[in-house]
């Protein structure tokens, strides 16, 4: 069995809800780590390179921007100096990649034991820093791009993160129980969702009462991010 055939964290405690029956929760198949099985209807879902795949073989309508995020060349360079870590991106946004990550984590005011959903997590550029901060809790990264999730899984294992679960699913039907998360983070992705209101309704459903959604947006001009970073506020990403 490949080392990456199982998720990075134990999800046998009822983390992911079965999208088929919407009543049961997924648990590791005792026969092997290559699939998760619903404890109610027995539907099974493959685990691919450490990612729980709730959309196996599903063809969903995607925008051009969403399709680009599934292209292997894009996945390979996304976190490199050719893109997100590059000086040209830092200049455009008015903030360095490292400072951006630090501010987003700091803005969450974490205590260390939270359960966090990073919605549209991509390659895990925020999910992984969150996981490092909540060693007594854990993070779920959810995305529509399986290649991005595989990259995130590989990086999480390289960084020794055992509290990050990665799920291939849609933001329009979040596979989690109501009032499950302490925080939902979503940076630079809301504009990609085909039905933003439905996605926000799902976020509201899975958030615990009184807890927060941390959205992000790309600033139209650089001085907004620079001013925010000087004030110690989260960047507008």
**SSE-based structural type:** alpha/beta
DSSP helical segment count:
8
Write down the secondary-structure element order. Answer: EEEEHHHHEHEHEEHEH
User: What is the correct CATH architecture?
Assistant: 3-Layer(aba) Sandwich
The largest sheet is: 9 strands, mixed
CATH homologous superfamily label:
Vaccinia Virus protein VP39
The global form is: globular
Beta-strand content estimate: 15-25%
The radius of gyration computed from the alpha-carbon positions, rounded to a whole number of angstroms, is: 17 Å
Number of domains: 1
The helicity comes to 25-40%
Mean pLDDT: 83
Spans with pLDDT under 50 lasting ≥5 residues? 1-6, 220-237
Output the CATH topology.
Rossmann fold
State the CATH class. Alpha Beta
Count the E strands: 9
Please explain how this structure is put together:
- The chain has helices spanning 64-68, 72-77, 87-93, 97-107, 127-133, 146-158, 196-206, 222-230, and strands spanning 26-28, 35-38, 44-48, 51-53, 115-119, 138-143, 164-168, 181-187, 207-216.
- The protein has one domain: Rossmann fold (3-Layer(aba) Sandwich), CATH 3.40.50.150.
- The radius of gyration is 17 Å and the shape is globular.
- A hairpin with a 6-residue loop joins strand 1 (26-28) and strand 2 (35-38).
- It starts with 25 loop residues before the first strand and ends in a 7-residue tail after the last helix.
- It is α/β, with parallel strands linked by helices and 237 residues long.
